[in-house]
From TrEMBL:
Domain of life assignment: Eukaryota
Cell compartments where the protein resides: Secreted, Extracellular space, Extracellular matrix
Main localization category: secreted
The protein, known as: Fibrillin 1
Gene3D superfamilies, sorted: Laminin, TGF-beta binding (TB) domain
InterPro entries membership: EGF, EGF-like_Ca-bd_dom, EGF-type_Asp/Asn_hydroxyl_site, EGF_Ca-bd_CS, Growth_fac_rcpt_cys_sf, NOTCH1_EGF-like, TB_dom, TB_dom_sf
Xref: PANTHER family: FIBRILLIN-3 (PTHR47333:SF5), VON WILLEBRAND FACTOR C AND EGF DOMAIN-CONTAINING PROTEIN (PTHR47333)
Organism name: Takifugu bimaculatus
């Protein structure tokens, strides 16, 4: 007996397959048999796992639909996959585009930062943003396009290692300073460098009466790494 021919509607929403002594119902994609075994009902794919991945699943009759989040698009299996915005648009960033999960980031070369639009680059002013170390070496920061340089004060020369300045200025050395006024010269009116003065017995130096750092301070150790007693070099 062929039950499928005898009762054409025996399988609701499905296909009847005749078997020896019986029959079975098979359901199309997106349906499954209910408890009766003869009725195909819609399968709620959204309730089974996470078919959309990074998106929102909406069940429809016989299937499902995915609404992907920004930065994602449906892949071959309908699952929302990351969009590589960088490969889709080579002009997205001014310098370099880096794809991220669900988005992208624009990168700038060293010495530059992103503008407010997060796409174009502008020069980074390391000096005004305090990213330089010039002050620690007694130097002044000067911003350059894409970089910066440390400049020595007038009369000073940059050290070969770039870690400070050599003070080559010449001036009189004073052993007494009263209220920031230099009183008495100790060098017999012979001009010496500031380190030659301050590392010996000087208290003030030069036409502007620059005060010598006190022994034991960081400034003194930096100026006089060998300690006190460094005699000035006499000229003439």
């Amino acid at each position: 007996m062929n039950e499928c021919l005898e009762n054409p509607g025996v399988c609701q929403n499905g296909i009847c397959i005749n078997t020896d002594g019986s029959f079975r119902c098979e359901c199309p994609f997106g349906y499954n048999l209910d408890y009766t075994g003869v009725k195909c009902v819609d399968t709620d794919e959204c309730s089974i796992g996470n078919p959309c991945g990074n998106g929102t699943c909406t069940n429809v009759v016989g299937g499902f639909e995915c609404s992907c989040q920004d930065g994602f698009e449906p892949g071959p299996m309908m699952t929302c996959e990351d969009v590589n915005e960088c490969s889709q648009n080579s002009l997205l960033c001014a310098f370099r585009c880096v794809n991220t999960f669900g988005s992208y980031e624009c990168m700038c070369p060293a010495g530059y930062v992103l503008r407010d639009d997060q796409r174009m680059c502008r020069d980074q002013d390391e000096c005004s943003e305090g990213l330089d170390d010039c002050d620690s070496n007694g130097m002044t920061c000067k911003n350059m396009i894409g970089s910066f340089v440390c400049i020595c004060p007038p009369g000073m020369q940059r050290r070969l290692d770039g870690q400070g300045c050599t003070d080559n200025r010449k001036g009189y050395c004073y052993t007494e300073v009263l209220q920031t006024m230099c009183q008495q010269s100790s060098t017999g009116r012979i001009s010496v460098t500031k380190s030659e003065c301050c590392c010996h017995i000087g208290r003030g130096w030069g036409s502007q009466c620059e005060l010598c750092p006190l022994p034991g301070t960081v400034q003194f150790k930096k100026m006089c790494p060998l300690g006190t007693g460094l005699h000035h070099r006499r000229q003439g």
